[in-house]
Amino acid sequence: MPFVFPIHLFNPSNIQFGLQGSTVASPQSISGVGQVLRTDGGGYWQCSMSGIVLNTPNKLRAWRAWESHLAAGVTRVICPVADVGLGPRPLQGKKLARPSGVVTTGFDPNFPESIAFASPYIVASIAPAPFRATQVTITVAQGSRLEGSQVFSVNHPTKGRGMYRTSRVVSRDGQTATVVIDPPLREAISSATAIDFDWPSFQAVAATGQEYAPDIQYGRRAEVSIVFKEAI
């Protein structure tokens, strides 16, 4: 199991993520009409984290350790995107419920094997769906109703951690909704499966060509950034 990049430790001030891909355009006809086709199978996730301030000896040591572990883009890791604020969060009374504290598992706290809230915040599951499905049915057992542009993860048995985004709601029955997602499912889902809105993340490698080494000021402080690309 890949280690989880400790976003809770490095606390980037800016996180930008989205689907990257490629298209090909056909030549235009005499009337000026052409077609644009995707050639990427639905695209791949890329996440950029910036404003990571290394202002303690522990953070500086942890960053250097991760610089070594990433091996210039060879080692697979789990990249969280910290998007729970836009997820189907539960209400407590008339206000949004607050999540509990963060807990990690693993021998080395700088290299967690998992990151989660102490008590599950949003509880949801996805119904069986075929490989490369673009419509899925999701039930939220604890939380608000599904909307478009919400991000969740699935632990696939073979492909590992995959991340998806709801595009629009097709139909709804109470807390169950059929939604369009992107990218298409990386692997078939054979039975009702728990999904993760609390800590959406995906299997990734560090993008190549980056400079990881921190420029340490006065021996005490540095600011760094990093880009991850989905490893499919």
Descriptive notes:
The protein is mainly beta and 232 residues long. It has one domain (7-230). It is built from two helices and 17 strands. The strands form five sheets. Strands 12-13-14-11-10-15 form a six-stranded antiparallel beta sheet, with no helix packed on it. It has a five-stranded antiparallel beta sheet with strand order 1-4-17-16-5. A hairpin with a 3-residue loop joins strand 12 (151-156) and strand 13.
Structural features:
17 strands, six-stranded antiparallel beta sheet, mainly beta, five-stranded antiparallel beta sheet, about 230 residues
User: What is the mean predicted local confidence, pLDDT?
Assistant: 92
Helix content: under 10%
H/I helix tally: 2
Low-confidence stretches: none
Tally of domains: 1
The overall strand count is 17
Distance between the termini: 15 Å
For the largest beta sheet, what order do the strands appear in spatially?
12-13-14-11-10-15
How would you spell out the order of helices and strands? HEEEEHEEEEEEEEEEEEE
The Rg value, from CA coordinates, equals 20 Å
Chain-wise SSE layout:
Elements: H1 7-10, E1 14-20, E2 23-25, E3 36-38, E4 44-54, H2 57-70, E5 77-80, E6 91-92, E7 95-96, E8 102-105, E9 114-117, E10 123-126, E11 135-142, E12 151-156, E13 160-173, E14 176-182, E15 193-195, E16 201-206, E17 222-230
Describe the structure concisely for a colleague.
It is built from two helices and 17 strands.
